[in-house]
Specification:
Blueprint: H1 10-19, H2 24-40, E1 48-51, H3 55-69, E2 79-83, H4 110-117, E3 121-126, E4 138-139, E5 143-144, H5 160-167, E6 173-178, H6 184-189, E7 193-196, E8 216-221, H7 224-234, H8 245-250, E9 268-272, H9 282-300, E10 304-308, H10 313-319, H11 323-336, H12 346-351, H13 360-366, H14 376-399, E11 403-407, H15 416-420, H16 433-439, E12 443-450, E13 456-462, H17 468-482
Parallel strand pairs: 2-3, 2-6, 9-10, 9-11
Antiparallel strand pairs: 1-3, 4-5, 6-8, 7-8, 7-12, 11-13, 12-13
Helix pairs in contact: 2-3, 7-17, 10-14, 11-13
Length: 494
């Protein structure tokens, strides 16, 4: 019997290795065939920038190691796609930018090194908007990425390439990065589980920044269990990233031990109603309908829900935003540290028009202050961010809420036609992911169901800093009670 790779899990793959039903070489070959059939041809998702030319060689080495000593690590032989924001030694890394085409780093980003040490196989690098500067799947290096559930819709950004690839079963698991919502938003649009951790829990060393103290690499997977397994492999202190002191403060957690199908029983969840869109808008109404059913599922699984209000929510979202005020500094510092990387600054790319023309945030950042610390507004915004976290934590405490719940975005995935016409600006798009991002609190997006038109909707669960295990537990219990994950019809079994 041929092993079925569509919707397979890490446990399924490892079981097949141990039974002799499957080898790493066979699995990698089959994923590469799916990339060729569905990403390069067929529906032409356009989620992959570069296939690792050593993937088959790495798989053969994995098989040889297994024959000699058994499993090489917790992710032994698991093919993973990595957002092309992370440097990969000996493999072209573009950060989504045509200006960086041909750049081949000498060293792996820390998260890539940890994946390799855990036994994973780097299969491919995935599409992102130029230097992660959009909620949408536009990239000067590769063009537009499609949503596998509706080819006329966007897969989300900035980790939309990873989102599309994992959703369409072009790889087993994926790595994204989340500064303002770039893991959770595409996870919502692509029917995945996406986790943004407390900043610093996972090293950002070797990854291009957007706002360095918000940047958070993390898992994008089809199941909560795989999310926990991937997270376990990549957390921890890294001497190359001072922000990973967070990992020391958090301490060690076995995230798999946190998974409990009964975790919702007796929990109190705060429903943030002002984070729901206006139901008079059809784009919001379809999301709200799915969310109301999801809330009832939470209650049926044993949770108590209570409506809560975050005072002045929009004020805090707007005035704790630091993308235009800090990102130019962080990107330029990164570029300056890599003399073999062609562009010297985001301003240079802007002047030379080396970016996708629909990246409005890229343009805004390129015209932002070179030195954020000379901008009085920067400090005001930073203080507002501190206050934002305090306000949200106080809301949770007053309500006795274990977590807050709301739709990941207020509207469903926009169509390519809408985006091409300029319907949405990045910083005006109604995504709720900014709450977790700008409070530095962890959050997970989990499949909540589908609209009547078959478009996926994600539910976000927001928790206290360092409580990723609690979020995984709640998401797992919801997943087990509902089972909303399903493969897209656009990429059937081969």
């Amino acid at each position: 019997m041929t092993f079925k790779i569509e919707e397979t899990t890490i446990s399924d793959i490892h079981g097949a290795y141990q039974s002799g039903e499957l080898t790493s070489a066979e699995l990698v070959s089959r994923y590469l065939a799916r990339i060729e059939a569905y990403d390069r041809n067929g529906p032409a998702f356009n989620s992959v920038i570069t296939v690792n030319p050593r993937a088959e060689e790495d798989a053969a080495a994995c098989d040889a190691a297994f024959a000699k000593d058994g499993m090489t690590g917790p992710l032994h032989g698991i093919p993973v796609v990595v957002k092309d924001q992370a440097e990969t030694a000996g493999i072209m890394t573009t950060f989504g930018s045509i200006a960086a085409k041909g750049y081949v780093p000498e060293n792996d980003a820390t998260v890539v090194r940890l994946l390799r040490e855990a036994g994973a196989i780097s299969l491919a690098k995935t599409v992102l908007p130029d230097f992660a500067t959009s909620w949408f799947g536009y990239c000067s290096m590769n063009g537009a990425t499609k949503n596998p559930y509706d080819l006329d819709r966007d897969p989300g950004g900035s980790s939309g390439g990873t989102g599309c690839a994992v959703a369409a079963n072009l790889a087993a698991i994926g790595i994204g990065e989340d500064t303002g919502g770039s893991i959770r938003l595409p996870s919502s649009f692509d029917n995945l589980v996406g986790l943004k951790v407390t900043p610093g829990l996972i090293s950002r060393n070797g990854m291009s920044p957007l706002v360095v103290f918000q940047d958070s690499p993390g898992p994008m997977c089809r199941t909560v269990t795989d999310t926990a397994k991937l997270l376990q492999a990549i957390v921890g202190f890294d001497a190359e990233d001072a922000y990973t002191a967070t990992a020391v403060i958090a301490g060690e957690t076995n995230y798999l031990d946190c998974l409990d199908s009964q975790a919702l029983q007796g929990k109190t969840l705060g429903i943030v109603r002002e984070a729901f869109g206006d139901s008079s808008d059809p784009e919001c109404a379809v999301v709200n309908d799915v969310m109301e059913k999801a809330i009832q599922a939470l209650i049926s699984a044993g949770a108590k829900t209570v409506d809560v209000e975050i005072p002045d929510l929009m004020h805090y979202i707007v005035y704790s935003s630091l993308y235009i005020h800090h990102s130019r500094h962080d990107i330029d510092k990164f570029l300056a540290s890599r003399p073999t990387l062609a562009p010297n600054s985001i301003g240079e790319m802007y002047e030379n028009k080396q970016y996708h023309p629909l990246l409005d945030l890229f343009e805004d950042i390129a015209q932002g202050p070179e030195d954020p610390y000379s901008d009085p507004e920067y400090y005001q915004r930073y203080v507002t961010r501190e206050k934002f976290q305090q306000v949200v934590v106080n809301v949770m405490a007053k309500a006795g809420a274990d977590a807050l719940v709301f739709p990941t975005t207020q509207v469903q995935s926009p169509t390519r036609e809408e985006l091409d016409a300029g319907r949405w600006k990045t910083l005006e798009f109604p995504t709720n992911t900014l709450i977790g991002a700008q409070t530095w609190m962890p959050a997970i997006s989990v499949p909540a169901g589908f609209t009547a038109g078959g478009v996926p909707v994600g539910m976000e669960i927001l928790g206290l800093p360092y409580r990723e295990g609690d979020l995984l537990a709640l998401a797992y219990a919801f997943e087990q009670a509902t089972g909303h994950r399903r493969a897209p019809k656009s990429a059937p079994e081969i």
